[in-house]
Amino acid sequence: VKKAKTAKDSNTHGLTKCRVLLAELEAHPDAWPFLTPVNQKAVPGYRKVIKKPMDLSTIREKLTNNQYLNLETFIADVNLIFDNCEKFNEDDSEIGRGGHSMRRFFDKRWTELLD
Ligand SMILES: Cn1cc(C(=O)NCCN)ccc1=O
Fold this sequence. Notes:
Layout: H1 7-27, H2 46-49, H3 56-64, H4 71-88, H5 94-112
């Protein structure tokens, strides 16, 4: 017998996918520049150029505190990491290339898990 789908149910499944995706991003070999917030004291120009900093530990904290309503709001924060990286880093740099690599990996994985 089919169970009635509640908002909570569909959200629950979306949040399970967020947990799966975040664990895979954190474990990726190219994730090291994105694991913790950019040290704005150590990186000249970062505070001025990047208006909305984001990193994987901040996303982990928000997920733990139930701050993502659905998969879409989670995906928006992950994309913010990669957009910030493209803005601040040359494509032909170690961190720039890492950002492109992580974005390609993420795009492939969330579309495979599509909510
Ligand atoms: C994502 N990102 C990271 C750094 C960085 O220095 N990360 C240190 C990792 N331990 C600098 C610029 C940048 O856009």
